[in-house]
Amino acid sequence: MNAVEIEEAVSQLAEAPFDPEAFPFAFLEAFGNKATTIKRLKSSNFNPSDLPGGVLQRNTIHLQVCPEGEVTATLTALRESSATTRYKVKFILATDGKSFEAENLVDGETVACNYPNFSDHFGFFLPLAGITTVRQIRENAVDIKATGRLNRLYMELLKQNPDWDKAEHRERFNHFMARLIFCFFAEDTHIFHSEGLFTATITQMSAPDASNTHEVLSEVFRAMNTPLKDRKAAGICSWADRFPYVNGGLFGPHPLTPSPKTGEGGQEGISPLSHPGRGVGGEGLVPRFNKIARSYLLHVGNLDWKKINPDIFGSMIQAVADEEERGALGMHYTSVPNILKVLNPLFLDDLRSQLEEAGENRRKLLNLRQRIARIRVFDPACGSGNFLVIAYKEMRKIEAEINRRREDVEHRSEIPLTNFRGIEIRHFAAEVARLALIISEFQCDVLYRVPQLALWEFLPLQNDNWITCGNALRLDWLSLCPPTGTGVKVQRDDLDWWGETREQAEIEFENEGGETYICGNPPYLGSKWQSQEQKDDLQQIFDSRTKHWKSLDYVSGWFMKAADYGTQTHSAAAFVSTNSICQGQQVPILWPLIFETGHEIAFAHTSFNWANLASHNAGVTVSIIGIASEPATMRRLFSITDEETLFERSVGYINAYLVAGSNCRVEQVRNPLSEVSPMLFGNMPRDGGNLILDGEERANILKTYSALERFIRPYLGAEEMIQGKRRWCIWIENSDSAIASEHPYLKKVQEKVRQFRLASKAGSTRDFASRPYRFVQIAGTARNHALVVAKVSSEKRHYIPVDLLEGRAIASDLLFALYDAPLWNMALIASRLHLVWIATVCGKLKTDFRYSNTLGWNTFPVPTLTEQNKTDMTRCAEEILLAREHYFPATIADMYAPERLDREFPRVREAHDRNDEIIERIYIGRRFKNDTERLEKLFEMYSKMTRQQNSGKKLGTGKTQGAK
């Protein structure tokens, strides 16, 4: 369940008659517990509560319904219960159906309210559903309530007006929803000069059966599109005349509205989509309602829209009108702290620093205010406007402090909304983005100035085009944010619905020039997931620059366009991105092109989780990368420590791998740069499956031909190694080929292999038809043992899968192998150091680690090891193997599953911790603080090793690179 679904379930529970016996289980069910879980809890065997009538879910919540008036005492009893402590309960809850009290035992936060109002605090309990939420959601449920109510209204209107869900009408529907959102907000914030005016008008003037609801709405919209002086002539109804003139294009005729004279597939003068109303403003933009839809409309209107937070609400509501995203309704909340990870180092920290430096100096404060007024924030993938809204709010906060220090408290803001520009490909999201900015402007005016001034100056809305609806990778960013000039003309191609007419070619507004900061969270999309249209977008940008662009992530287009834009303007850019553009094969393709424009990486956040509001959803792993043509002397590098805290350092340079240090490219080499054993390919049969046996086939063969056991060896690929599956292969040495050719069974097998190879289109395979007894590619076999590494493995594991095979075992071509290598090599491969190196320089296959011997192992920097170092590392490898053996028959897949490793296989975790401790002390004399520090040391060593190699110096001499 997501947050919106949970809110709806909790609200329904709060509105239903109170049932003391059913409440605890209904409450748990509202937070996503399955029917089987509820059934078990109803049994005393699975309910370990030690209080009469109490219900306890282990590791989660202990709740109890009590007699009237005893809620506080019952909460105390729950807190002091030994079962609460024993079963590590995080929440306690008590209610008598009149009062409701709860406590989060982890952080001490509490809730106390009347029972019917407990649904307003549903965010407090979201951790019960596995949703790690943020304070904005916990303290303000109205955003999620509004999202859920609007979604139900939207879906009910679609049932009543099925034609409105067609592509040719969807824009109209979205525009109608944007009008409603504005009205709900305006009636609760006195913009309509009377609280609740919109909802009250619908209630009073529309029939209970909803037969004329669309007509009432049409007339209200028509009134808000008609100046007061023109209303008498327009014949505006007296009950609609109470609404102010809004204009700004929001309540004007939609460009796609059918003409009231010609209609659209219906009789003359009548639109088949809605009643035509009595003038411009309503026609074609109001769907028909039924009783249920009217009820939902009034329900939404009765929410307290004063509490709407546009930076939360907008990002969730955008899914309402998007059929593909509707199933993820309410998940798309991007937290303010995450957005500020982009905006703060991009430019807000600099503004705050200037504010602190200015102190009370009126001239410096004025200069800073004038600078802020000229800053443009441009999000070319703006969605519902989160980044723009947060940037606007933060800049208004700084401006308000300037005005306070200058005693200009009533000074009108000099920050124009037209300086916050965006591109968004989805129509409704573009509308919501503009609404979110309008609402933010009003809220800031109320907060920082006299509220009455905010009301006087808010209407009518301005008809400026800030949010462009279109494909950001196809549009000319310079035309949307030109570097200088006072008259900016933006060409339209269905880019904004708020203009006077569809034929209007340009929107003109003031632009004083100044700094431009480009930011946002563009779509990531790896090459395998891109549509043909998206591939065409990238081709248009990269085809003239590199022939290797097809392997780039979609987000690369935004970085390249931002770099191109920065060659013509005073700008800097920062985007949220999957970290894959700073790993593996994308690094040498993308980043030299960006660096060629004169841009460098000004700051970066290394990998962290960009989570959403889906339950049990860890989100996607991202990086934040800021580029500038004139970065500060010292660059800011942010990372998450092993203790999950934010760590910031100032560094001289950040390379394309997001590591502090010189800009180098890790390239494939045939032999290891360090003194480690060579890593070779496994063995490839190309046999049509005829040389490979499963367990049943092997058993049947040996029953008949027991002497063949010496020719049948264990055969392992990545799946067999990781998941513990068993397979065998027929392995015949050259010296035994004559014997094999005479054996009745082996002779038949070889004939099948020969026929398969002869039929191959590959010449190299056909060449081996004359030697059907052997594999086509044999990289090597072991006398004693082989260390094997999976070519592809899950990125979720904390360590690269590596194992020790006995000498007879044959590694397939899905493994790399170190034949008869000293065991201390395994310690290196199994280390955290090696994993972060592989993840960075080798990249990924989809979301899995893609191991490479030439790019990952041969380049892996290892200090010169003493014999004692090797002895210690050998012991570490042995301890890892013994720890695994302790949990036999658990497999590597079992033991290294992140959610199981610490809980079920602590000896394995402890063995790896000791291994990391030993190895990292060899490198720097202590444990590394985090992966960023690990990579920095590895890149420093790699640069030194490659310089030595290039200068012809012998590698691996000198003292151990140890403690500094």
Q: Could you give the count of β-strands?
A: 27
* Gyration radius, in Å: 33 Å
State the low-pLDDT regions, or none. Answer: 255-283, 326-332, 485-511, 612-618, 953-964
Approximately how much beta-strand content do the residues carry?
A: 5-15%
Quick one: overall form?
A: globular
Q: Could you report the average pLDDT, rounded to the nearest whole number?
A: 85
Structural class: alpha/beta
Tally of helical segments: 35
Mind summarizing the main beta sheet? Answer: 9 strands, mixed
Q: Give the N-to-C terminal Cα separation.
A: 51 Å
SSE map:
Blueprint: H1 3-15, H2 23-30, H3 35-41, E1 55-57, E2 61-65, H4 71-80, H5 82-86, E3 91-95, E4 99-104, E5 110-114, H6 135-139, H7 142-160, H8 167-188, H9 197-205, H10 213-224, H11 231-234, H12 291-301, H13 310-317, H14 336-358, H15 362-374, E6 376-379, H16 386-405, E7 420-424, H17 427-448, H18 451-458, E8 467-469, H19 477-480, E9 488-491, E10 506-509, E11 516-520, H20 532-542, H21 556-566, E12 571-578, H22 586-596, E13 600-610, E14 620-628, E15 635-640, E16 646-651, E17 680-681, E18 692-693, H23 695-704, E19 712-716, H24 718-723, E20 728-730, H25 737-742, H26 744-758, H27 763-766, E21 785-790, E22 792-794, E23 802-806, E24 810-811, E25 815-819, H28 824-829, H29 832-841, E26 844-845, E27 848-850, H30 853-857, H31 867-886, H32 892-895, H33 898-904, H34 906-924, H35 931-950
